[in-house]
Amino acid sequence: MIIFNMVIGLCASLFLRKQNIPISICRKLTKMKSHPPTLSYFSSETNVNHTMLGAILPGDSTVKLQKFPIPKPSYGEVIVQTKCSTICGSDIRCIYRKYEGSDQEAYKPGTICGHEPAGVVLECGPGTRRFKVGDRVIVYHISGCGVCHDCRKGFMISCQSNEHRKSYGFQRDGGMAPYVLADEKDLILLPQELSFADGAQIACGFGTVYEGLERIGISGNDAVLVMGLGPV
Question: How far is CA 178 from CA 12, 104, 148, 162, 166, in A?
């Protein structure tokens, strides 16, 4: 049975559900077998019913498991088999209270949470150009329009399109499920030297810190003061 080990909130309360393949949030996962991933690799129940369990955030200090159809990729999309999905500080507010505002970080009720997933490409839709089945990937947490000035510079987080900019786990389904439907343009190749847990942390948290350090311009020659123990 798949195991979701979800550490939620300040008290790190354990959230557990069993299915078939181990999916962990905070530890290195069992590696895939050498053969390419296929739907038959999962349980007959998942295969026959064409459904999967995903975690949603009702906003009342709980996490709820709900059945969702197994997604199918359209043009330029891929299905990623989730191997690891971590929790970000921005998830915490949606866990403890509803956060359905109109800004870019608002949570759309009923969306599968988790914007820091890493896994293996399971299926490629038509029009994909780079990634193939079996590739180890990170899913970047923001899907931008791809054509505005910021997206073209690589800053999808600053995408100017209110219609097309969507965050995984907030406005489109994220990584707290066996499968993630992602745009191919949002994938980053995960080197063999890094675990899926490493990749999941890179997806948002590491990149945020790295960009901050780049903008400050500090190096190993500097002495710094770190104030606070924030999630990033």
Answer: 22, 25, 32, 28, 20
Q: Are 169 and 85 in contact (CB under 8 A)?
A: no
pLDDT band for 102, please (50, 70, 90 cuts).
low
Look at the chain and count its residues: 232
How high is the pLDDT of residue 8? 30
Listed in sequence order, the residues at least 6 apart from 227 whose beta carbon sits closer than 8 Å to its beta carbon are: none
The CA-to-CA distance between both ends of the chain, in Å, stands at 32
Q: Are 2 and 19 in contact (CB under 8 A)?
A: yes
Q: DSSP of 87-153, one letter per residue?
A: --HHHHHHHHS----SSTTPPPTT----S-EEEEEEEE-TT--S--TT-EEEE-SEE--SSSHHHHH
Q: How many angstroms separate the CA atoms of 210 and 202, rounded?
A: 10
Gap between the Cα atoms of 160 and 206, Å rounded? 23
Which of 169, 140, 197 is closest to 24 using CA atoms? 197
Query: The whole model's pTM is what?
Result: 0.75
Residue 168 has pLDDT above 90, yes or no: yes
**Using CA atoms, how far apart are residues 120 and 127, in angstroms rounded to an integer?**
19
Q: Which tokens belong to 208?
A: 């945020």
Encoded amino acid at 43, one letter: S
Are 189 and 195 within 8 A, CB to CB? no
Question: Are 141 and 197 in contact, with CB atoms under 8 Å apart?
Answer: no
Per-residue pLDDT band for 134 (boundaries 50, 70, 90) equals: very high
